[in-house]
Amino acid sequence: MRRSFTFLLRPTGKQAASLAACLEDHRQLYNAALEHRRTAYRKAGVTVRYGDQSGELKHIRADDPAGQGRWSFSSQQATLRRLDKAFRAFFARVREGRVPGFPRFKGRGWFDTVEWPKDGDGCRWNSQPEHPTATFVRLQGIGHVRVHRHRPVRGRVKTISVKREGSRWYVVLSCDDVPTETLPATGAAVGVDMGVASLVTTSDGDPLANPRHLEASAGRLAAAQRALARKKRGSKRRRKAVARVAALHAKVRRQRVDTAHKAALTLVRAYDVIVHEDLRIANMTRSAAGAIERPGRNVAAKSGLNRSILDAGWGVFLRVLAYKAESAGRELIAVDPRNTSRTCSRCGHCAKENRVTQARFRCQACGHEAHADVNAATNILRAGLVLRDAAEAA
Q: What is the pairing mode between strands 113-116 and 123-125?
């Protein structure tokens, strides 16, 4: 299987400046290639493709040896492929009748990753294996950068990427042939209901807490954003205020990912079969504001619900759960979430009135009472087992 490993870089001051210069030159290459495509089609009706632009790289590097010429040729090809991928996605959306979203020029804050497609071609992981206590990654034009390797790397390193998040730099390794770490069988199956009060409630009645990281940092974020609004555009103080807001958001993101890892690991260790709702989170968190001619209803309440759903991090949790289940040899089943919270897990009666409150369920037909999330999780588990049996029978 394929896995990614992310480690914090510990560059020196000179190396950090070189990393920033590398990122900036790749951003300019991306924008120049985008302008080339736009101008060629607008002026002459000519479609420029990746092969054409890749062939021109050697001339660009020769004309600018102190700039573009000092970086890895392969990493620059990866940047051009990134643009080509954006165009292919654009044309696919046009064919499908969706909002096209033409590829945009990348501003300084919207281009934060450079990729080296092959270990050994302009980059080298663990470039100084003889060093007894530290790990390094060598990057062309930058040198041997120290890595805070907090866990072992498994499998074969295929691609290496460097990513900037605020003032921090990370190296991301994409590895092939990563061995699975199958856990011993438990013989247990569980259904999980996603929520806001609790991140997850299982069919066994065990809730996993939702720490609400964004809500906990809301005061500091509001103060930082007010300070940012007072700064003059283009000033050094404004750049510092922007970095402060970005650092607070980055911390919330890291906390959310950490919570998702811990919750997913709890489930994977305890159950062989895990059934969850197949949620369309983007649709669930769509704005209710509407338009001028058709304004929305309950906009403030819907906005608060959207914020709570996004703060819970359902998408992050489900993504982490998927790869942990695959690595541990567990079975993960996604089911249609419709009516799981309205249906009685005992008699099967489905009615809106069964959900008395957000937390209480009482069946209007048989009188069964339970916690609403536990009742929904039980229905989710039952639906998943039905799908599993049908798949095995087929």
A: unpaired
C-alpha gyration radius of the chain: 25
Q: What is the pTM of this model?
A: 0.84
Q: Which amino acid is at 357?
A: T
d(CA 194, CA 10): 38
Q: How many Å apart are CA 107 and CA 34, to the nearest integer?
A: 13
Q: Does residue 336 carry a catalytic annotation?
A: no
Residue owning tokens 């005061």 = 219
Domain boundaries, the chain: 3-176, 189-213+247-393
Architecture of 189-213+247-393 per CATH? Answer: 2-Layer Sandwich (3.30)
Catalytic residue among 84, 119, 272, 277: 277
**Over its length of 394 residues, how does the chain's per-residue pLDDT go in tens digits?**
889 999 999 999 999 999 999 999 999 999 999 999 999 999 999 999 999 999 999 999 999 999 999 999 999 999 999 999 999 999 999 999 998 999 999 998 899 999 999 999 999 999 888 887 889 999 999 999 999 999 999 999 999 999 999 889 999 999 999 888 889 999 999 999 999 889 999 999 999 999 999 999 999 999 999 999 999 998 999 999 999 999 999 999 999 999 999 999 999 999 999 999 998 888 877 776 665 566 666 677 778 888 888 888 899 999 999 989 998 999 999 999 999 999 999 999 999 898 888 889 999 999 899 999 999 999 999 999 999 998 888 7
Q: Is residue 90 within 8 Å of residue 101, measured between CB atoms?
A: yes
343 DSSP 8-state letter: B
Q: Dihedral sign, CA of 376, 187, 391, 386?
A: negative
Tokens read off for 319: 């993504």
Report the sign of the C-alpha dihedral through residues 246, 249, 253, 255, in that order: positive
Catalytic residue flag (residue 206): no
Residue 190 · residue 203 · CB < 8 Å: yes
- Residue 2 to residue 198: CA distance in whole angstroms: 31
Q: Of 25, 193, 272, 311, which residue is the catalytic one?
A: 193
Q: Decide: helix, strand or coil at residue 371.
A: strand
